[in-house]
Amino acid sequence: MIKIELPDALRSLAGGAREIAVEAGSVSEALDELGRLYPEARLRILTRGGQVRPHVNLFVRERDIRAHDGLNTVLEDGDSLLVVPSVAGG
To answer: Does residue 70 sit within a domain?
Structure first.
């Protein structure tokens, strides 16, 4: 089982849940499962073309998936996929 940890900004699109448990072998599969359960939440993370939105960071085992294999990053049972929106300001 994989836990997808959602930021406050996405929780209202996922029934108020802080974490969503899914069965998945990769980040892509986990987000597909999230989209099956909560389509609007997935659209805030990925573009319609299936790419990670520029203002969203995804972490597995405390490392940005960009440092792994992107959306193809392998997930192991018990992993957490942390969704972190970029913060901008001055």
So the answer is: yes
61: containing domain:
2-85
Q: Which two tokens stand for residue 55?
A: 């203002």
Give the separation between CA 67 and CA 7, rounded to whole angstroms: 21
Number of domains in the chain: 1
Provide the residue-wise pLDDT of the chain in tens; the chain has 90 residues: 999 999 999 999 999 999 999 999 999 999 999 999 999 999 999 998 999 999 999 999 999 999 889 999 999 999 999 999 886 555
For residue 90, being part of any structural domain is answered with no
CATH number at residue 31: 3.10.20.30
Structure tokens belonging to residue 77: 């049972």
Q: How far apart are CA 43 and CA 50, in angstroms?
A: 9
